[in-house]
């Protein structure tokens, strides 16, 4: 395991700590990444961007290119054709990306049915064509995120990582599950160690890292240089920075509570409405609102929850959030 007290650098980008926010489609948009960075995340990664849709100027994919803060702007591209990946990389570069990450880990059927995401682990020669295309397209550093393999009969992460690094990849992230596991069972951090031993670049371990204890265990089992936190940050964007601080023995920022948390949730809500537009933003915000309530162990009566999630006026939403986090709403048992 790397000395976590030392600074980690990715292709010349010096990172503040070794706890990163994972890319999650429909979740780690610019508002979410901005909050994670404010609370001390060491690195944040964009939502997965479909390279072919980006190259044809799809509005949603273009929105996903938005930079969120001062950290290196990592844009994650997905695709199955070298030409689209090349074009996507060029567009990301022109839009201000600092690093391009290639998605070879998404288990979604919608993605893998198109032979992208973790489906690429079944065809490593095709996966290498994409890496070659992206590395050649711009001067930006390229990283790769993958899983352990497609299934138990194809645990090929170490071999694919070695080939990816030989092709120019400068960091590898591994989710400790196979594609066929999706998000079931437990992440097997120990199976990331062969990847660490196979390459000379930093390896990041991902999956089921929801606390400082889990982060330390994941690093110990895998020998990885850093951790990447996904679902553990839902409803608590401060969690990534807290883990990053604790890994180096610093006192973490306290999680917001009460009125401070109400202000943060309202700010996140307003930012989503700005980013997506009010009509779509209200719908996108609902899952984040549910996660914030769950993280705070708040269970609302159904009428109150429905009113909150369907509030269309920001002022109404802000008032309700303030009342809820101050305890003024009657909570279900």
UniProtKB/TrEMBL annotation:
Keyword flag Zinc-finger: no
Gene3D superfamilies: Aldolase class I, Putative flavin oxidoreducatase, domain 2
Family: Belongs to the dus family.
Function field: Catalyzes the synthesis of 5,6-dihydrouridine (D), a modified base found in the D-loop of most tRNAs, via the reduction of the C5-C6 double bond in target uridines.
Domain of life: Bacteria
Gene Ontology MF term list: flavin adenine dinucleotide binding; tRNA binding; tRNA dihydrouridine synthase activity
Name by which UniProt lists this protein: tRNA-dihydrouridine synthase
Cofactor list: FMN
KW Hydrolase (keyword) present: no
Residues binding FMN, per UniProt: 23-25, 76, 145, 175, 230-231
